[in-house]
Amino acid sequence: MSLYRNSAWFLKGLNEFTKGGFLSASKNFVEKDLETSVVGRSFLITGANSGIGKATAMAIAKKGGTIHMVCRNKDKAEEARAEIVKESGNKEIYVHILDLSETKKVWEFAESFKKKYKTLNVLINNAGCMVTKREENGEGLEKSFASNSLAVYILIKSLIPLLEKSPEPRVITVSSGGMLVQKLRTGNLQSQRGRYDGTMVYAQNKRQQVVMTEQFAKAHPNIHFSVMHPGWVDTPTIANAMPDFHSSMKERLRTPEQGADTVVWLAVSEAAVKNPSGRFFQDRQMVSAHLPLAWTHTSQLEDQKFMSVMEDLAKSFQPH
């Protein structure tokens, strides 16, 4: 990563990604955008038992939506579900246990969900995995890539038929501003070459999510796709994987509710879908997915090559 890219990103972050950045941006929010009922609409949210995912589930549950919480830990998921039901008064909250790093199980979950439920209005890819050293799952895939990229690809790919037959379908992926320092690198998707830096691998995965969103939007115009940056949020992922950043920035970090605000806006508001599909959002605004002069753009050909690699890899783990 270039010194320029790094410095430009951090200065932008201090100005925009913090709690102060949210409070400043929120002065331009249109409150009636979120004054809506979503009774009868269903929302699948990964990583819904803590942080941004839980705050998103809570906010949508309060608006009457049916929530499918996809979580790795059963006890934490059930505890979060009980809290959401109690606070929202909404009992249409369902827990599904899935480890997104287990690729075959992601396929199996998505295929069985499709058979069991007749509609899915909104898919929210929120779960994130950041590790400090390179690890592989039982299938030989690097864990961050398997969880953050391949699982997102498979969930979208498998659930598209269900989304397309549901009213006003949307797919929202929670990315990260860290991807602004990364250019898509299709040749090293599983971080087998070079020194392993978990933070940069995570940022690369988040760039991959942006490219996926752009490409899926072109291929499926009936679904509104979006990808967003929640800002720097005080979540368990950040606290565990980036302890120094977390402790030095703690007072400036956004709350999970502030981080979830744009996710909820993209999921429920009419205003959100007036924007073009496939774009990147921050604080309810469509913004560039690239820093000025940072040379992180890739060609359409490179982006299509990446999608082709993802397609082949996903298919190789698809149950027959």
UniProtKB/TrEMBL annotation:
UniProt-recorded name of the protein: Dehydrogenase/reductase SDR family member 12-like
CDD domains named among the record's database cross-references: DHRS-12_like_SDR_c-like
InterPro entries listed in its UniProt record: NAD(P)-bd_dom_sf, SDR_fam, SDR_member_12
Species this chain originates from: Carassius auratus (Goldfish)
Source organism, top-level taxon: Eukaryota
